[in-house]
Amino acid sequence: MNSSLPVLKIGMLGCGVVGSQVARLLKDDARELSTRSGAQLVLSKIAVRDMKSKREGLDASLFTLDAQSLVTDPEIDIVIEVMGGIEPARELILQAFAHGKSVVTANKALLATHGSDLYSAADKAGVDLYYEAAVAGAIPILRPLRESLVGDHVKRIMGIVNGTTNYILTKMDEEGRAFNDVLAEAQSLGYAESDPTADIEGFDAAAKAAILAGLAFHTRVTAEDVHREGISSITATDVSVAKSMDHVIKLLAIAELTPDDQISVRVHPALIPRTHPLAAVRDAFNAVFVEAESAGELMFYGRGAGGAPTASAILGDVVAVARHRTVGALGPRESDYADRAIVPIGQTKTKYLIRLNVADKSGVLAAIAQAFATEKVSIQTVRQTGRGAEAELIIVTHNATEAALSSTVKHLTQMEMVRSVESVIRVEGAAQ
Amino acid sequence: MNSSLPVLKIGMLGCGVVGSQVARLLKDDARELSTRSGAQLVLSKIAVRDMKSKREGLDASLFTLDAQSLVTDPEIDIVIEVMGGIEPARELILQAFAHGKSVVTANKALLATHGSDLYSAADKAGVDLYYEAAVAGAIPILRPLRESLVGDHVKRIMGIVNGTTNYILTKMDEEGRAFNDVLAEAQSLGYAESDPTADIEGFDAAAKAAILAGLAFHTRVTAEDVHREGISSITATDVSVAKSMDHVIKLLAIAELTPDDQISVRVHPALIPRTHPLAAVRDAFNAVFVEAESAGELMFYGRGAGGAPTASAILGDVVAVARHRTVGALGPRESDYADRAIVPIGQTKTKYLIRLNVADKSGVLAAIAQAFATEKVSIQTVRQTGRGAEAELIIVTHNATEAALSSTVKHLTQMEMVRSVESVIRVEGAAQ
Q1: Which family does this protein fall into (chains A, B) (predicted)?
Q2: Which is nearest to B160 in space by CA: B139, B145, B146?
Q3: Is B335 part of the contact surface with chain A (CB cutoff 8 Å)?
């Protein structure tokens, strides 16, 4: 380190997979980080829940069980929060702000629930709140949205922001395997949690969708505003039907402006064309596809999780916050001036793929087409494959509201000639 | 606009395709830009070379022929330079700095030649120099490199940073057409200049490579430091051979750290595997693939040129610079502390594909393999296809220096059994 530079002391809340990487990098790269930030960055305290875990390469005297004393310590300038969860993280961050510390966090759940409160508290205290690591790990997406695209108008964001579900869907697509089979394998390999609900059912992606929507559309959006559907109902047949149509099924986090300037924000599986840049995003990789008025189509791709990638994003924020403290500046504040309304899912328009088993006799197609027409859902393509007494009917609609589509499906299930509605999946990323 | 906010006056040098879009957006989005920047941004002067061109929607009184008076005008706070070229742009920007103005520019050639002088002058004057639009148009790549990845170590950058050449190579790949044929079409469509040298021969990409290498490796790199080869020698056969090997040929701008911490920076066509994320970047799109120590693999994708996309990047910079002026802060300075050496191309190691026509008789392969061994170039794969008295031999090497490879090719051309060395192309992006 360059000892002529001012010292900034860092306290860290938590020291798990991410925290231990952050601690290692702060130590190993001390000289370069000081050159780049204009300050000597010293990790001086780490609050943990137990002192027994072995933490290699880190001085035991750094550790404390008293998180409270860390966030109120007058010596500490910057707090890194990597403990996760809502409480006590929220309370500790608020206290850190109240005691004049800037905060860097990777806590998507907290930001998607209490983001505005945190921003207000940081603003009041005149300190920074940075959280690049909260969405898509190492991929720089929040800084480009908050800063690079600040002179543009974002129209739509579609992201693959959950690595576990993308890993599962990739294996299903490439190996033709069933959901439960791949999930079990992912769990045994440590790619999926033993309780995979947060990933599989889209809770994790919904928190990230809320953060992205808020930044893109200058409006407060919380995880509760996000319509959420997971991937547990996606079958091997769904995946193979998508494949036969040159599409691939992805769990997408979508935030888009509607024609009347409202926001639709949702997480659900969807078919996208194989030619779409997101279709090539495989395994546990993440990517965020952005459509802006002037910039056009942009995509940001990389590792969405993992200790080192997440630590990279956190250190980028730490350097920014440190530079601000040495020169007396501040980063962007919350931008919620647009205050747009969030469209209920019933009014959200997308294309749909509906797969039906129907009786294979004359007049069926006409009757089913009539059912769609009655509900004012316009059909784009139909594919019928006979198999004995039954036929498989695959219908892709033009844009339709979720409400109209639901009515149509209800209508279909009441028709005698419809043996079963096998699946209903949205189609995204195609020309309308 | 919010009239309680301070006014910042903007002068613009040039008003072509990009400048007219910048002017339009500054006018149309005045209210939002003021909310986002904390200042009323007023375009108050535009210097042009002739007053006769019709410029729709812009007040004639804005225009002046006197660029000199614009950059010295005490009323002007921010100068946007979109005139291009080295002089008088360089001299005007230096004067703008000397008169206390921050500068936003899209001028890659200027930055790749005189970047350090400009940085020094901005530093001395205590003003900002921003230039996101200079590399890969609308794609936020410089801000992520300068800021998001500032806590990480970039190991390699591979970019498709020239839209014209990527358009040509895409058509050659997808339609099997010859270079000259596609170039002529691109010229007639306006996708390529009537004198296409800057694009085709890699000068444009080399300037961008220099800028990316400098930022990534904290070292001064100019366009002259960049080894440069264009795509005019790529034949339809090269493209189809690449295709038969599940590769695609792209013009790549590469900046990488060598094992002994030097920098290799070069622009040349190369085969990359179809599974590489860059392989899917089609037509005039650009993408920059970054490998960093902690973050892993990242890719940034979007439109690399065009009026509106470039204007989006410029306005992002203008908002940043405006925010800095209202709060008295400054963006990142030049970072050249690492001062790494640049490796001569002869010592640069890559894999190569060599395609030969040889006599189809026994002992040929052994003799040719011996020629490689003599030059200490290790062979990875060989594919021989007989056709009458001749055979086509396609050899892919392991990593070899350019010097060793050149010696090998010289050696081969002197062998009687070698009828011709049809092509020598580098292979990038694969496991070694």
Answers
A1: Belongs to the homoserine dehydrogenase family.
A2: B139
A3: yes
In chain A, the number of structural domains is 3
Closest C-alpha to B414, from B377, B381, B367, B382: B367
* Angle (deg, nearest 10), helices A402-413 and A364-374: 140
Check B312 against A132: CB less than 8 A apart. Answer: no
Q: Omega of the bond prior to A88 within 30 degrees of 0, cis? A: yes
Written in H, E and C, the secondary structure of A76-129 is CCEEEECCCCCCCHHHHHHHHHHCCCEEEECCHHHHHHHHHHHHHHHHHHCCCE
Note whether B72 and B45 are within 8 A (CB). no
Strand extents, DSSP E, A198-262: 227-228, 247-257
DSSP, collapsed to helix, strand or coil, labels residue A329 as coil
Mutation site, A135, A294, A325, A337, interface B, largest B CB count within 10 A: A294
Range of the domain at B42: 7-138+307-327
Sequence-distant (6+) residues with CB within 8 A of B83 are: B13, B14, B16, B19, B47, B67, B89, B92, B107
Question: What is the pLDDT, as a whole number, of residue B54?
Answer: 73
Q: For residues A426 and A406, what is the distance between their CA atoms, to the nearest angstrom? A: 12
What is the pTM for the complete model shown? Answer: 0.94
Q: Is residue A335 part of a domain?
A: no
B279 and B149 belong to one structural domain: yes
CA B203 to chain centre: 9
pLDDT of residue B432: 42
Interface of B with A in 4-33 (CB under 8 A): 21, 25, 29, 32-33
Residue A296 covered by a domain: yes
Q: Are residues B36 and B55 in the same domain?
A: yes
Judge if A223 and A188 occupy the same domain. Answer: yes
Residue B52: pLDDT over 90: no
Query: Which residues of B are catalytically annotated?
Result: 208
pLDDT in tens, B303-342: 988 999 999 999 999 999 999 998 888 888 888 889 999 9
Q: What pLDDT score was predicted for residue A1?
A: 54
Residues B319 and B421 in one domain: no
Structure letter (DSSP) for residue A9: E
| Contact flag B147-A143 (C-beta cutoff 8 Å) | yes
Closest CA to A412 of A348, A358, A351: A358
A312 shares a domain with A364: no
Where chain A has pLDDT below 70, the residues are 1-2, 431-432
Please state the φ and ψ torsions of residue A201, each to the nearest 5 degrees: -90, 5
Residue whose tokens read 């530093």: B123
Residues A318 and A378 in one domain: no
Q: Are residues A199 and A265 in the same domain?
A: yes
Tell me the average pLDDT across B212-230. 96
Instruction: Flag whether A12 is in a domain.
Output: yes
Q: What is the CATH number of the domain that holds B257?
A: 3.30.360.10
**Same domain flag for A293 and A316:** no
Q: Containing H/E element for A21?
A: helix A17-28
